[in-house]
Specification:
Elements lengths: L5 E2 L3 H16 L3 E10 L2 E9 L6 H18 L7 E5 L10 H7 L3 E10 L2 E11 L3 E6 L2 E6 L3 E6 L8
Parallel strand pairs: 3-4
Antiparallel strand pairs: 1-2, 2-3, 5-6, 5-9, 6-7, 7-8
Helix pairs in contact: 1-2
């Protein structure tokens, strides 16, 4: 079954992030993203957390146990859902300004709504960004992409060149 639309920055996600961010700070971590989405027949609330030292399963469990009762008490979501707490992983979706700021100097893959020079995917070193564009250094030189034309951007880890 096709995944239905995802609610990210407004409404439920923003309210949940405001509620759980202080808990994350108490644990010495921060909230990378919050997403509320319907996948198949179920609704999922995914709280993605991170820290400078990285995230392990124990931290995810601590965060889950700490925010679960807060979410129940706040009653922000009027339908049944599954709560997931996870790390952003090695390849991270870049959605917010602070995500792009974090990723400057990293290899990024941008998927485009429409082809640019015959391709809908551009991969390169993220060298600059602003609210209107992102600049990727590719083998063909700098490529400036209008952010409104980017459907998805994520960091890419080259497993072949890292041990």
């Amino acid at each position: 079954m096709k995944e239905k639309s995802t609610e990210r920055r407004g409404g439920i996600a923003a309210s949940v992030e405001a509620l759980v961010s202080p808990v994350a700070e108490e644990l010495g971590i921060y909230v990378w993203d919050v997403e509320f989405a319907k996948r198949g027949p179920d609704n999922y609330l995914t709280v993605t957390i991170d820290s400078d030292e990285g995230i392990d399963i124990d931290i995810c469990e601590k965060m889950h146990r700490a925010i679960d009762p807060l979410l129940d008490e706040a009653d922000l979501i009027d339908k049944a859902y599954m709560l997931e707490v996870s790390s952003p992983g090695i390849e991270r979706d870049l959605k917010r300004e602070e995500h792009f700021e974090w990723a400057v100097g990293e290899i990024v893959e941008a998927k485009l709504f429409a082809p640019l020079n015959g391709t809908k995917t551009v991969k390169g070193l993220l060298t600059a960004f602003d609210s209107e564009s992102i600049t990727l250094q590719t083998s063909n030189g700098d490529t400036v992409l209008d952010r409104k034309n980017v459907s998805k951007a994520k960091t890419v880890f080259d497993f072949g060149n890292n041990r």
